[in-house]
Amino acid sequence: MSPVDVLDIVNYGLVFVYGLFLSASIAGGCKARRERVLLYVAGSVLLLLLGGSWLTLGLKATKQLYPVLVHLPTIGLLAFAFKKPVGISLVSVCTAYLCCQLPRCGEMAMIAVTGSELMGEIFYTVIIFPIFLLLYRYFAPSAREAIGESRKALLLFGSLPVTFYIFSFAAYIYTDFFHFDSYVVAEMLSIVAGLFYMIYTTAYRQQLQRRTQAELLNSLMGGQLKQAENDMVSLHQAEAQSAAYQHDMRHHLAVIDGFLAIGKPEQAQEYIRQVQDDIEAITPKRFCENELVNLLCSSFSGKAGRMGVRLNLETSLPGKLAISDTELCALLSNGLENALNAVKSLEEERRWVELYCGVHLDKLLIEIKNPYSGRVAFREGVPTASKLNHGYGCQSIHTISQRCHGLCEFKAENGIFTMRVALPML
């Protein structure tokens, strides 16, 4: 046996270890000690199977049986022993197989430069370790994150290695296609690369658009929650001012007593009316036990009155809720703001808004109804921004509901727009 044949066998074993550990790393295994031990044992068993196949059946038959002897057991090991999804296990193995071409390219380059197969095999043995370390350190974590992001990402990033795997075995191991016509092979590889590039570019653009929309929505949500916090501060300041006003009532009584003492009852009555108006203007009404809802309802009642809108409120909420104050404020503020803007230009008899807040079967229920005119456009069940103003804030309401593991519904039927939100109280 020549030195070239010996090194070829050694490199065959090295690339097996290279591919096995890279497959496990891409799939996300080898973290626990049990997994590492299991991988070592499985690798030893598969290496013995490869050696037995080579001794009994020969190198060519072993290469043809390689998917059955190595790749299928590795996929099963990752899927059943390491508890990885079958799709991720398959793509991990095919991706590692694609990465095995890197040291092979180095070998071919060395043979082209030196004209010696022995130097090519030696160079293969030398470079396979640093290539593995680089891929294990930098590429495997990125590939693992990419294929694990979503099912679409798995299909997108797994299409090329799986296609290359099938094409490589079909054209090189099981047929003489690679040796038949190098021009045809080059054309086929160009077609595969071009198709993948077109599919990848299209899918990447869609993913980028979704990510951009999500970032814009998060920015909008952040601004709305910040505004909700500012509104809450203003409402609390108004409540504190009202308390201070009531505390100073003794001074008002002293002024009234002075007017009566000097025989000016008309001025005393006028002063009383002024004090009442001032107190009512800054005093939040009590609608339920929840302080925040009281403040919001009081604020929007005043705003609706100034707009000439009848705001009918039915609230029955406890003092403590599972949802945060900022999210609850954003839900009610967006919903009521949309409703008031939608009815402010309608005829007087249709200028009304209804709000219901309550708890039923451990669910926080919010319902807002209002008339509207024109057409409300929907996209995936959520109103889009329009001159009717229903779309502004509805996406935020939908996002908050999903984040709180709740449900929301928007309907526009028979001239009545309805927003319903149900959130778990636990």
Strand order of the largest sheet: 1-2-3-7-6
Distance linking N and C termini: 73 Å
Radius of gyration: 36 Å
Number of helices: 14
Low-confidence stretches: none
SS elements, strand count: 7
Beta-strand content bin = 5-15%
| Helix and strand element order | HHHHHHHHHHHHEHEEEEHEE
Task: Describe, in plain words, how this protein is organized in 3D.
- This protein has 426 residues and is of the alpha+beta class.
- The chain is built from 14 helices and seven strands.
- The protein has helices at residues 3-27, 33-57, 59-81, 86-99, 101-114, 117-148, 151-173, 177-180, 182-247, 249-261, 265-282, 291-307, 325-343, 394-403; strands at residues 310-316, 352-360, 363-371, 378-379, 382-383, 407-413, 416-424.
- The strands form two sheets. Strands 1-2-3-7-6 form a five-stranded mixed β-sheet.
- α1 (3-27) packs parallel to α6.
